[in-house]
Amino acid sequence: MKYLMQLIYFSGVRRMIRIIDNTLSCLDSYHASPHDLYQLLESLLKLPTTYIEMSASVYEKLISLKTLPPNRKYLLHVVSAMQADRHPGLAGYIMPAESFGKMGNAVYEINFKNMDNFVFDEKCVQGLRIVGFAERMAKEIEQEIIDILASKEKFEFCPKNDYFCATALAFEWCRLGGQKIVASFSGIGNQAGLEELLMALHLENLYELKGDLSCCTEIKHCLERIVGQNIAPNKAVIGEAIFAVEAGIHVDGIVKNPSIYEPYPPEFVGNKRQIVMGQYSGRNAVLAKMKELQIPENGVDLIKLVELLQHKSLVLQKNLTDAEFANLVRLVK
Fold it and tell me: Which band of pLDDT confidence, cut at 50, 70 and 90, is reported for residue 135?
């Protein structure tokens, strides 16, 4: 069984993976307006996911504005069967394990720690969602996942990010044959990062992107507005600074052949490459920046410019803005 799973993985065969985006299930603690939530939903719908999951509170806000966009499967995260009954007609419902068996078209959440004490009856439910699993990072994860997938139960996986490894766990689940995975954009709600998982599956040729990842930047801006906090500039896939290069040798290499340093072009996720001027910038970086800013080289003392640039960046303890760099160029003409 283990050998077969590895054979499928290394052959690069794309398998059927259903990705559940539950970003909208993680926003109840924020005071988001129906308009902002609807804008976020419309952006999330552009991603290559299978289901959009939302909390009952978010769902009620959305439908108070207008009906949900068609042609997508929506899941509702509820706390009881009674709450689900108030909102019929959705593709499925996610419920706590304590309500097990009360609805046939529901998926029940259960923490991995409690799985051994849980009696599964597949006639009663649509499936089970494993929540947690982060503490297993020091264990034989691969074998544990294989054993879970080899059982008859209909499992989906929602790893938590308690030890900063949720995305890695989500990828392993998919790599080893798991067919349903739950993630949220930017990992909100202490979960696997949806955009990171999509990118990893794409780069490993395990999942066909039938959607548009260039919307990641607009989703990021929507989410930042709702939560009132900016996403870290060095955040994988969506950080605004991850395509920033400073050292001259790196700039020269990227100008000549971007694939040497970048696994995918920044435009693929709606970002753009930035050449930043700092204390490690050299002649090649300066020339590339001047070309970007359409500053002619004629009459510019490049040696003096590099010296001034490195000194000022060291004194200021930061990279220079485009305006600051342009002022330095004028000083050495």
Answer: low
- Secondary structure E strands in the chain: 18-24, 51-55, 73-77, 92-96, 106-111, 127-132, 155-159, 180-183, 244-245, 274-275
Last residue of a domain, one of 192, 227, 262: 227
Q: State whether residue 96 is helix, strand or coil.
A: strand
Residue 272 in domain: yes
Separation of alpha carbons 9 and 171, rounded Å: 12
* Ramachandran category for residue 132: left, alpha or beta (phi over 0 → left; psi -120 to 50 → alpha): left
Total residue count of the chain as it appears in this document: 333
pTM of the predicted model, to two decimals? 0.83
Residue 24 clears pLDDT 50, i.e. is over it: yes
Identify the CA nearest to 275 among candidates 263, 290, 260: 290
Spatial distance between the Cα atoms of 52 and 29, rounded to a whole number of angstroms: 19
pLDDT confidence of residue 21: 98
Count of structural domains within the chain: 2
d(CA 188, CA 183): 9
Output DSSP code: residue 315: H
Cα–Cα distance measured from residue 231 to residue 276, given in angstroms and rounded to the nearest whole number: 20
* Structural domain span for residue 294: 244-331
